[in-house]
C-alpha cells in the first residue's frame, strides 16, 4: 500500500521460536532477515513464501513489521 506515491516500508524476518506460544527466538544469530519491501502486499508475498517453505518445522515463524509506523508513528495512512 502506498499513500500519495510514498513508500510504506515493511520488514520481513523470521526464525525458530523457543516456544510455540511466544515470540522469543532460539538463536538470534540464526534470524532470517528476508528483506524490506515498499508496500504491504509485496511483504506478505515474501512472508507467505518463507512461511510455506518452512511449514515442516512448527517452531519456525516469520513476521511482517510495519516499518512506516515505527519511522513516523504519528501518521497513519489514509
UniProtKB/TrEMBL annotation:
Cross-referenced Pfam families: DUF4170 (PF13773)
UniProt protein name: Inositol monophosphatase family protein
